[in-house]
Structures are given as C-alpha cells and as structure tokens.
Amino acid sequence: MKLYKLNTHTRGCNKSYDADLVLNPQDHPTAKVGNVVEIYAPEDENGTHLLLQITELNEQSKTGRNVISIESCIATAFKMRSYSNVVMQIVNPADVALDSIEITFKDQYMGRSEMWRLKTYLTNTCVYVNKKIDYNDMQIRCQVYEMWSQGERVASGVITDDTKIVFRSSTSMVYLFLQMSSEMWDFDIHGDLYFEKAVNGFLTELFQKWKKLGCNHEVTIVLFSRTFYAAKSLDEFPAHMRDCLQQDYKGRFYEDFYRVAIQNERNDDWCTVLAQLRKLFTSYQETVLRYHERQNMRIPQATNSTATQGNFLEVLNISLNTFEKHYLDRTFDRTGQLSVVITPGVGVFSVDRELTNITKQRIIDNGVGSDLVCVGEQPLHAVPLLKFHNKDTTLTSADDYSLPHWINLSFYSTNKKIAYSSFIPRIKLPILSSVDESDVEENERNFLSCNQSEYIHNSLFDYDAYDEQIFQPLPAQSTCSLQRVVRAKKTSVPSFETYAYRNNDWENLTPTKIPSLRRKMSDPDIHHGTSGMLAALTDSTNLSESLASEKNARRAIVSIAPIVRPGRALINPFDPSHVTIKLTSNRRRWTHIFPKGPTGVLIQQHHYQAVPAKTTLAVSYHRQLQQSNSNNNNNTNNNNDSDYNSAAGDQYDQVSTHSMISLSKSIVSQNFVMGEEKSDFFKRRTNSLLTATASAANVPNLTATQAKSYVWGATGEQEWTPAITTGVDWKSLSIPACLPITTDYFPDKRSLHNDYVISDYTLLPDDVNLDYARSRAVYRKPLSTEEVCKEIVSQRLAQGFQLIVVEEKPSNSNSCCSASGSGCAVTSNQSTSAVLPPSSETKKEYLLSIGRIFHKISLSGSVITVTGYRPRHPYPPINVDYRYRFHAPQHETYEISGVNFTTEKLENFNWNHMDLYICTRGDVDYPLMESLKYWRFRMYLLPRESMVNKIVSFGSPRCDIFTEAVVDNTRDLIEDFVRLIENVSKLKRQIGRKARDSPTTHSLTKRRHSTSIISRPPNQGLTNSPFRERVGSNRLPEKRPSINVRSKLEASRISRIFPGTDAAAAATAVAVVPRDDQDDGFPVDNKFSANITLAEIFEAMKHPSTGVGYFSQTQSLPSCTFVSYDALMWLKARLTNGRHPLDLLEAMRKERMICHASGDWNQPVVPGFVFYYVVQQDKNAKDYAPPLNDYSAFVNEWLEIEFQGCSFLWHDEPTPSHVPNFLRDTTAPQSWTDYCKNKRVYRQSHLEIDVNQKSDRMEWGHVKHHTVMQPGFAFELVVEWVTSSGPIVSDLISGWMRKANHCNYQLVSVPADPMAEPFTKKSDPLRGPIFIPLCVTFLPDGAALFEEFPEDSRSDRMLFLQEAILARFGFSPCVLEETNKDLPKEYQYVHCTGNMFALIRCASHNYQMESPSRQEANVTRCVYGHTNNTNVPKKVGFLWAWNHMIPNKKWKALTINNSVDGELFQLKMLKDFREFCSNSDQRLANFWANCQELKRKSLKFENNNNNDDPKNI
Asked: For the whole model, what pTM was predicted?
C-alpha cells in the first residue's frame, strides 16, 4: 500500500493549483481525468475516507514525486493534517455511488428544468459535504448538504445516473398558520399554556434554527380560528352578520376568522416578531368572539371551536390559492413553497370529504410542502387522522377515517423535566364537568351500540368470514368489460395482486385463476364508510385513483365494487398496518426526498423507535445494523399474506429508525466532522440491500413494480407501531425540499390498456424550422431536434411533471426504456445507467408523470413522438365556495372575503401548442396563451423623485408636498427615456448622443441580433387631438429659455393634476426665446432661412456630421435609420418661420424621401421612439442594408413607442388654462387612451433573454409594453417567458434596472394584481386593499360639492378631485386595458417610489351590477363592508394597497431619519393620507379653497388679456 505525502493549497492563489486535487502525473501513469480516488490515513482504515475526482492532469500543475495536494478547506473538514502520510488509490465509482444527495441553495430562483440541467451537469462527478457547486452556464450557486449511500449518511461519494438529488431552498415562501382553537388557552402537563408552548417553545426554536442555517425565508404568519354560534336558524342573526356565515353538515352556524400578523416579510432575526404574536394573543379570543356585538342588539352566543372542529383544510387551500399563481408574480430571489399549520391539537381533524379530495389533489399536483406541527401530546393511534363528517345519522353508521400521506406531521415537545416522574402522558383526559348532551356527537354516543362482540378486536374472530357475509357482490352488469366470477370465498387481495406483480404475470391473470380479484371503489387514501355513498357513486369524485380501478365506464363501477354495508371493516387508527393500499403515482410523488435506511426502506428522519436501555453507543450502531440486515435477510419469514416482512426489522427497530441521525446532532452542527460515523463506508454496492440475499423470499423491493404500500406515513414503506414517536422534522421546516424531479411509478401494461386513453403526435423540428426559416423576415438560429426534445421535457418538468425512473428487465427489449434521472436513456437491452456508444441514429426516451397523466417522449433520428396517457374516467372538477373574514396588517376591521377552491383539470393543458411554440422558436403563429401558465415579471418605469428625500431625510411633517416643484423637466424625462430604450434595444448611434449627466457622450453597446423589444399598431394615425395633454409636472422652465411656449397639452394636464400652481407664475413662460444651440445634443451649424424647400431640408438632414444622426448597422434595421423624436428635435432647432416639424416629416414621407423602417409606406410619421429610414440612398454602397418589407416582423423585433403629452417640445403651442381639471367647464380626459388614435394599450415583441451569452440553452422570451409613453404616467413593461432559466432572466432584468438608474429612472417590480380586490381570481386570499374614505361634507352649511356643474358630470369631477389629491401625495396614473365596459369607471395609480398603489372608482349609483352566481369562480371578496348585491362603493374613497414585490431590504430602507421607533416612510404616507382625506386640521377644505381661488384668478387673468383665441380646454 503506497503512501503519499499530503500537502494543502488554497484555490485561486496559483493558477496551476486551481483544482481540489493536484498530483504528479508521473506517479500515476494509469490515472485519467475523471477518475475517482479515495484518500485516507493508513492507521485509520475504517475512519473517514475522502473521495475526490481528478479534474486535471498536466505537467504545469504538478506536485513533487510521491506528493499529493488537496484544497485546504477540504483538508480541514476531513481532519487531514498537512505533511502527514496518506493512502491514495483509484476506486470504482459504482462502489462509492450515492443513493441520494441533498443540495441547498439560497436567494435565487431555480426552476424545475434548471434542477434537471443541474442534475445532468453533476452526474459522474464526485462530491463531499459542504462542497460549493457553481454551474456557470445556468448562473446557479449551491452547496452539498447531506449524502446517503447504502443506508448510511456519508461524507463524500459519486453522483451517478441513479442518484436521487433533493433540492432544498433556504429562501422559500413560508406560510405559518397558528390555529387559535380553544386548546390554546389550556395548560399542558408542564403547566404552560399551549400558546406559550407554540410560540415560546416551537417558534422560538424554529427561528433559532433558521438563523443558524442562514435561512432567508419570505414569511407570512396568520392566526386563524372558527367561531360557532348557538343558533337554530339564520333569522336569529342581525343583518350585518349574515354576509359571511356558513353552515356545517350538522346545521351549525359558524364563521372563520384570519388575522394576518406578518405579511411577506424577511427578517434576519425573527425573535422580535414573537412579542407581536404574544400581544395579539391577549386580545384575540375576545375580539373574535365579540366582533359582531353592537349596542342594544342580541346576537347568538359565540364559542371558539376545538382544534378537531377547526378550519384546518380551508387554511391549506387558502395558501394553495397563492402558491398556484407562482408564475404570475415571479421573483428571482426565492424558490419553494411551504405551508405550516401549528395546532394545539393532536393531529385529528373532523373534515368534509369533498374538501379533503380537493386539498389532497391540489397539494400533490402543485408539489407544495405541507407540514402539520402539533404541540399537543402524541396520541396512541396513527396520526395525522382525518375523520370524515358522518352525514348518516343511523345508529349503526360507522365513522370513516383517512390517514393523509400528503401531510408531513411533527410533534413538538419541550425538554422540560418533571422532578417526580419521567412518564409522558399520551392521552389528554377530559375536564370533569357536566357535559351538555347536545355537544356530544350522536354517533359517538352510539358507538358500538350494536352487538359489541362483533367489534372486539384482539379476539380470535374470523374477520374474513364476517367480511364475506357483509360484502356479497351484485350480479355483474352488462357494461362490465371483464368477465367476472361470483366470489366463492374471500382470499386476501394483497396476496393476489402482490403475487401477480412479483411474477410480472398480469397479462395471464384470468377470472378463473383468481376468483376474488376485485376492484376497490374508493380513492386509495380515502376510505368510504357510509352506505349512502353508493347512491351518489356515479357523480362521486372519490373513485379510485389507483390506476387499475378505472377500467369501466363510471356507472359500471357499481357492479365491480362491493356493497358498502354499515358495518364494513374500515381503517382502524389503532392498527392501520393491516390496511394496505394500491400504489399510485400520487403516493410516490414525494418519495425521492427520503433517504434509504439500512434495511433498504425509505425512512423519515424524525420518526423514532422506542430504544431499550441496553443499546450500545452510536459508534457501533452501523456494524450492528449491517449485521442485523444480513441476518434478517437470511431468515426472512415466508408469509405471503404480509406485504411487509415484520421480522426483517426486529433487531433494527431496537435502535433508532435512522441510527446516526438521532444521535448525531452535534455532528451536524460542527460542520460534519465525520469520524467513526462511517464504518464499512466503501462496501461493494449491491442493487438493494434487501434483495441481495433475499432472492428466494418474498421480501418486497419497493420500486415501481411494488403493488402495495402502507396507508400511513409519507413514504408508505414504514410500518406504524405505537412505539414510533414522531419528533419535529426541523429539516423540512428550515430548508424545505422542492418537489423531486424524479419518481418511480409507472402503471403496468394491463392498467395502461384498460384505464387510459392514449393519444400521440409527432414533431419534425427540422422540417418545421425549414418552413419557418423561409417565411421569416428575421433569421434566428433554429433549435436542433435534440434541443427541441430536451426543451419539451424541460417544459413538462416546469409544469410539475416528474421524470420516471424505472428498473427494467434486461430480457425485455421492447419494454419502455426509462428516463434516468439525468435525462435520457439510450434504448438498448441493458439497464438504464448503461450508455451504449452512439449508433448512427440517436434514440432517447423519457417517461414523465403528474397525477394520473403520463407522457412518453421519444426521439428517434429527427422525429420526436409525444405519447400521452390520460385517465379514461377523469375525476369531475370539484368547486368549493368558501367565505371568511380576514384582518390584514394596517387594516382596521375583519373584512368579508370569499374564494373558490377548485381542482384543476391537468389533462386539458394544451401540450401540442406548447411543443409547436418550442419547435418554431416562439413564432407569432403560436403565441403564449394564459392557459399555458407562462412566467412573467411585471415592471413600472418611474422617474426618480427627489421629494421622497425631503420626507425621509429631512423629516417633512406632511407628505402632500409632491406638487411643489417648479422646474419643468419634461425634456429631460423624454431624453432619458430615449437613451434608456436605445440601451435596452442594444442600439448604437454613429453620432454619440450627449448624456445630460456627463460632458462625454454616452457610449452604448452594440445591439446583438433581435434583442427586440416592442412596437406600434398598424392603425396609427397622426395625433393632432384637441387634448394633447401632458401629465406630471407644473414645473416651469428654469435656465432653459429654449422651451418656447407652454403646450396646450402640457399645462391643461398640469393644472388639472396640480391645481396648486400659481397661475401668474405660469403665465410668465409665454415669451418666445431663441434656443440654445447645443441644447438638443445635435451640432447646429445655422438656422434655416424662411423660404427653404423640403428637398434642401432633407439634404441637410442626411448630412453625416450635422444631420439627424443614424444608428450603426444592425440586423433587421435598414441603413440610415433614425427615430422620429430625434428628427423632430433636430428640425425644431433649425426652423424659424413657425412651420410644424411633424408636418414636414409627414410631407417627406409622402414625397417618398423617408419611410417607416419596416419598409411599409402606409405607416404615417408618429412622434416618439419610432424608426424611419432615408429611402434615397446608394443601393450599391457596401454598408447598404434594405428594409425587411414586413411590418409585423419588424414590430415583433423592435420596441417602438409613441410620445404623447410633450408635443410642445418640438412645436410652440398656446398656453392652456390653469384651472384644476375638476373645476373646469369642460374636463380634460384622464389619460392618453381617451384621445389617442392608437387604441392598443399594449404591444408585444420578441426578446432575446441571454444577452450575456452565458447559457448553454437556447433562451428567448417576449416583452409586452405600453404603446405610448406620456411624461407623468407609469410606463409598463412585462417580461414573459417559458423557455428561459430563472437566473438568466434575472440577469437581464437586473441589467435593465441598472441602466434605468443610470438614466434617472427606476424600474420597479409590481404584482400582476396590485389591489388584490374583490371579484378577482388571481389575488392572494389573505391580501386586500385598505379603504380610505374621503370626507365630502367639509363645505360650510353641508353644501354638496360641484353643485354649480351639471349632474351628469359630477361623478367624473369627483374622480378628478381624487386624482388631484393623489397627485399631491406623489401618485402617478397607470394605464390599464379596459376589461369590462359595464363596470364603473376606475383608475389606478402607483406612488413615485413604487411602494404603494391607489385605486379610485366612480361612486355613482348608475352602475348596478349583480354579484356573480355562487357557482362561478370569482366569488365575492368584498372590501367595502356592505352586502354583495353590487360591487360599487356607497362611499367615496380610495383603495390603498402595498407593493409586496418590492424587495424587503429596499422596503425597510425607507426609514425616516430621527423618527420615533424608526417609522417607515410607507406607513407615514398612509397615516398622513388618512388625515388629509378625513379633513383633519381643515387640510382638505383648504385645498378646495385654494383650487377655487386658482380658478377665479385664472378667469380674471384671461379677461384682462382679452384673449381672442378660442377658449382652451
């Protein structure tokens, strides 16, 4: 055994020492790059073995003879001393292969397709604990957390195709729900309130763990409870209570309350929040129970429910409503979703069966982690336990239970010791009191009311015979497709199905062979117990999800299911292991996150077995375990009826279910110091520890072919015994796992044939691309067939599918060849991990599944075949309408709300459209549709506002100061905007544009092909509307005499929004002054003479140094291209005789001197960032480039934006009136949508996303944006994508944000639904706007506002008054698409900081709209506190909402200097706005008086001047 001397090196210090392992090639002539070596100290052969991979072998970086060097951090972690002697030898990767590995990542968004790419990248590499992984192609950074091999946790190993990779995120979206049921006010055995145990105990520990692990979750904390009312009918309730009442199956009235304590916050230290929760606790119960009390009014007696009766499933669904919309408000700094319910109960809930089905399906399909933490004592039966509402009141009706495997259960117990006893009670005794009989559930009183001897369990009672008598089958109906034989004697179903599966003999099974093969009728996890169920069976949603049960049409099920008699054997919570269920894809959806224990069974690390006192120390556990394994495997019992081999685990059960986990907490904390923890680490790997020696015995090897699994537990592989105690799954609560990208269940052939509808289609990407390449005006590199295939798989993963990894039989060459976790399997007769040398034609096959939908994607040569298997009898969609009251932060009341919980029909997803979208590389023929759930990131571009600083830094006492500025900066805003869009479009000018910030010209990067952005509608005309208005500022020219006359447009909008302007001051800006030559950034030689001809002007425009200035040559732009805004400003600087620059350009277009850059002669000249080119140019010049001559292709390539509200910049316009809009005789329109000829609000174009060319994937997307830019309005941009990686999109957008800052703008991310209002499907159920009423009675003598104006204009005037108030507080209007013409007018605004939104709505009574029927999906979420017959506010006011998309740090950065308790600017704004609207200190009345005064002055001014001009609007 050759020894080497060990050196250490630090990575990065020396180029030649950049690898983890450096060695001398001369010492190792046989070594190759990629080989794996093990290194260990010779004296400690059974100690820690370090595995490293040789990543480079070159002569430059080499050590001395017989010396190896490893990276110093690795040496420290593995306790290897420098200069010591070590053994190093090359090992076979298969011997040190990992079964599973956990990888953590933080503060980044990693989609599921990125996870798959990362897995492929990591395959065949060597990893060790805490190794940092940088995957530069995808911009992904992550770290190895934990590894398992052969039933043990190990410190290093090799990732192979078969290794399961678990991704855990330290930055997730976490919802913590505290169930405030009546037990919260009870005391536990240590004398603590359960609330104290939950908050001071569990939450405190959880937050400490988060801090220690460096988690940065985005957290929402909600307190919730259910209140029952003692009433027999609705008439006993006063009218104000009836909106939100619901009735349960017993006819009891109840109402659910939610108190949101923390909403979407991130904290470095969460312990400060605990005090807030304690404060809420003191008043919670009283507030909720007495919420409806009014003076002189009787309301029914209210009581808080127990945990069992509480709204547990509703809470999970509320979080799912938000989680489902993850693609709408995408953020790039978090991944993963987790909802945690903390209850004082014991894990038993009384639930509605339908709601259980919805919850289960949604949790499983959405791949959301759901944890239940009980602070009560663990009962002696299996939990979590759902007890179905028993609507059957007959005496003999039995209760029906379900053990949900989709809830991860933890029991939290404090480690307090009682001096006199170590006994922990696991039963909570009822309090002695005279119990009101009506409270005791009738069926509980009647429990065992029939002959009790039938139910005595541990007696020698022949259950089979008893069941036989109960379950007599009906005669078969003619619709049955399988001939069925009437049962003679019951035999155990598991043994038959298991026998058939194990011998792979399904095809040969006939009814004669197995007389008793019968189908189960219910969802395998939800067992029915009522005889009444049979009647409803045809519409029931609970039919089996086990794939075998769907063979016949729905109605035929009656013939194949047994009659359900009242006394049927159901799940016994005290002995659940005798019930096994058929394996389904749902059951296996999460199993790949669990490691395999020493017996080869998947284990949950927080389940502990009772350990007798005689156990040895942790050190010897492993050897003992391995011995127990091999012994048990030799003496396995041959009991065919048992699905599980009970003897196999006897010795193992005496130690902890996961030996080293329970005893290695110290090890985890000390950075994984691996010492004696791994004996026999490098054992030769066998396929499975269990099957190795148990070939003769029927020991189940739980892979996809396993027919059955236990009903209890998340893995379905651990048997429940009363000795198992459940601890807290801290890992899942601290670094939640993302849904695994692999699973292992695929239905057998018989099931596929009987229960599935098969459809398929083929794609020929090469042919498709050839056609599209011919017809496309702009060339884009097409995806190769292989890339298309990979992308098709990626899209399915991204939508929640999982790759199916199945073990195959080598003999069966035509069997489905699986997709191994890393992606593909080359079709061959060997097992998946073997890869053949590539043959002439590539063949790959991938199997994927979600729920009961399976897809097979095969690539053969240049043909891709997509085969879909969907259930023959899909479940009908279920829809539950739910109402509740919630109280969000900064709200003053519990507001009424309602949502729908619906299961989604996954089989309706249009995969064919998506696949063609990928094939054609996002061609316009296949647009992204809402139903494709594409990802989007919505932003507003807002000018940077200096007034905020006045409030934050200088502590201005009032916040309505945003209209006080006097400088007009329209010119700067437009110039900066043009500079930004040029930058984003990657355009470069031949003559540099002068940046106004710096004396040097602004250098711009060259545009890569088609980083297009957006465009202009074909129907645009010239904009000479009478209201060419400008928004946003009453600022007058200062040091800039060049702005000649105030535009009609500009000032009408100014004085409409900012009525506080002094009219006289405004009037001083009328003089026409010569323009400063250099002001427009163009060199000016001289002014044109008055009688210059059009041709002469055109020649001057073309001048290479003094002309307009063209863009540098760029693909898809013709040569000599310029934007119309530049041409207008160039002309404005040179024209002397008042000719209109826009008219001149239009005349040039008509004379065919210039044309729209697409080559379309019909496009008129539109002022703005719109491209035109010089037509008359030398066609033979070497840099000549013709136009595309395809308008739609051009606008799909480039961002084109019309400018409104700033025409005074290039044409002198008369001064408008300065009267506030709401007091004018004729009001001006609210936004450009009202007067712009271009009626399209948005336009969409292609976007190249990977601008830095980092990705190894073809990435593209789309950008949707406003067609018009008007100063003072928010400009909206939305990036949309499906075929891009999160980190790459993030890179692009952060680049844009930096450029925007550079151009004096800010790009703010905003939610898809900022107001989260009533009647919206997309909103978060626990978010809602704050209603701020506006005082309208401030006039003396209670006079009404706007009395002097006609009645039909008053409602509009009220809106304009509200708009003027918002403008004073710094809000800008947002232009939105009109969705419903029948709804009242409403306008939305965003604050200049982007932190809050406001909405105003017409409060007239002309608009009446019935609320949608209860069956529709958009059930009321009412915020105005009145009934739902109308969604129009009766009061005038504002809706105010926070922008939860603003990053937390940025949000908290706006703390006001020297304020008490560090008051936040946002909260100060809200407080001051409320005060202003309620007319405190007469602020509103003074504002009104000032506006009236302004109107008087303005009229006087006009009369004095005796203006002959027609009156300006």
From this structure: 0.79
